[in-house]
Amino acid sequence: MWDDGRLCHGGDYNPEQWPAATWREDVALMRQARVNLVTVGVFAWSRLEPAPGRYEFGWLDEVLDLLHDGGIRVALATPTASPPPWFSQAHPDSLPVTADGVRLHHGSRDTYCAAAPAYRAAARGIAATLAARYAHHPAVAMWHVHNEYGTTCHCPHAEAAFRRWLTARHGDLHTLNAAWATSFWSQHYADWAHISTPRATQYLANPGHLLDFRRFWSDTLLAAYVEQRDLLKAVNPAIPVTTNYVLGDWVPVDHARWASEVDLVAVDHYPSAVDGGAEEQTALAADLARGWARHGAPERAGRPATWLLMESAANQIHTAGRMHTKEPGRMARHSLSHVARGSRGAMFFQWRAPLGGAERFHSALVPHAGPDSRVFRESVRLGETLDRLAEATAGEVAAPVALAWDAASGWALRHPGMPSDLPDQHDELAAAHRALWRTGYGCDVVLPGDPLDRYRLLVLPALYLASDATVDWVRDHVEAGGHLLVTYLSGVADPHARVRPGGYPGAFRDVLGIRVEEFHPLAADEQVLLSDGGTGRIWSETVHLTGAEASCAYVGGVLDGRPAVTRHRYGAGTAWYLSTRPDDDTYRRLVTEAARAAGVHPVCPDAPPGVEAVRRQGPEASWLFLLNHTDRPQRVPVTGVELLTGTVVATAVTVPAGGVAVVREDPDGR
Ligand code: GLA
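Predict the joint structure of the above. Result:
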């Protein structure tokens, strides 16, 4: 079973790219690094089934036996993210078509349409064949279905499936026409057969049409996953099944909705910023993953949210067309940022760097330089560290601040007809999270409608779409004494992306005590001055107070003297509104004000700047993870036992420069 109490360490293992002699060395090195879980076969379809119905399992049999003998568990993948060349040749109608009608060809990966019947049948076929052969193999601890579901397509199969999905969603054309506001530009549909996927258009496409297309693909890909999962479970229900989600600003599917269909939320995370941005992105990614995991089946049954960092980079951060080498210690800090936030381990893409293929320069635990390398030595140390931290899995993050996340709001905000192309939900989420992270407040990610009783402060970062139920959810929270921080472009539209009238933000005017009359989007290099000395970027608005007070105003320009940030007592709580994106210092001041009003405290108020603190709280103990992102040793007052060194901490722990300390806290010391 995958969950044997240890934290997982390992990654994608591609033995099909190496001769058998290397497999033996791999197992020996894995044991040295205390690797205990590897994903095998993600892109191995053409080696498993070199011709239709002709299977070559000998190599995989041998690899699984070797791994098992070495005590290494396997997440066995179904290889459906990369059909073999013969499949594409035999089923050209399964090749994906882009929005402008170009049919893509074999030669990379993910070259299929997940709505094409032949592809789905072939995917079921290889999954069922693997299940029949390996579902009871003692090495197999988990099924890893596919890889990073997220493709779309505009082929005739996709179009037919889209129409079926629309019929199920809207029921009749009258409802669809109303939802998509098709009276605009003569788009009224009188026949389902007239509806195509949102292909390339002369000018702006219909926002409702685009949004439903995203939802359709999320549901279609989920159905493709579910049918594989069911085949695997049918053979051995005891083996958990999952698929690895992508994490970052690419949100191809509604990951939170998928959570209830996986036995374990598994995520891939690759920061795209260098400096401190990578640490902030990592913290947000892990908080998101935990938030999604809370929607999983085990969690709904009352068990702690369980998730796993399935892929990360052992070394490079890839940004702006360039790979940056991670400094010593950074890989471990990123890994432990995930573990601190609930991940059941730290896994990597990939075990051994390939010598050829498109990703030959992607980092690996065993780099091209071989095991006599800094990266491999760091992975050995990480294996030891993870073993020492296994006890912390008994703890859960208990954060007092909730950040709302909604995949559809992000999709809707990317419509090109928005008043500005600068606002982006992920970016707003990251800005709010960064302000909280830098001030040391722990936060959870929630979905609209989630229970809020454990949270004192709810933040809505560009929650653009709001249903009537979401309006009630927010109002009830504040009325009952909860606190609320809302950013611009929240609650502007309904779930079909139609504007809520009467002044923005239609959904939350009452609770915020404001009415926004006009938007004033800012240019990319433009700033507005604020009366508290700060600045705003990206956006500004004409805000009227209808009960709220201004906590700061715009200075100069057309909005001179008008409210920029407002505060409103509502019921027993308080609601803040940000009509612009404050600079980082101002944002931190604002979240601190809101958090203090809400009675929320930083995780570790005495942690020096640059030291990230995350607490996992268990029924009988708590574990304080301290990640020192500075280049100097840092002292943090705490008492307990430091697990990595096994030393008693009487008053304070010194966290090495760029290093980590994890303290099982003395319950009387807190
Ligand atoms: C994703 C994929 C991997 C690999 C990495 C590279 O996470 O799942 O196969 O391509 O990206 O970063």
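DSSP finds 18 helices and 30 strands in the chain.
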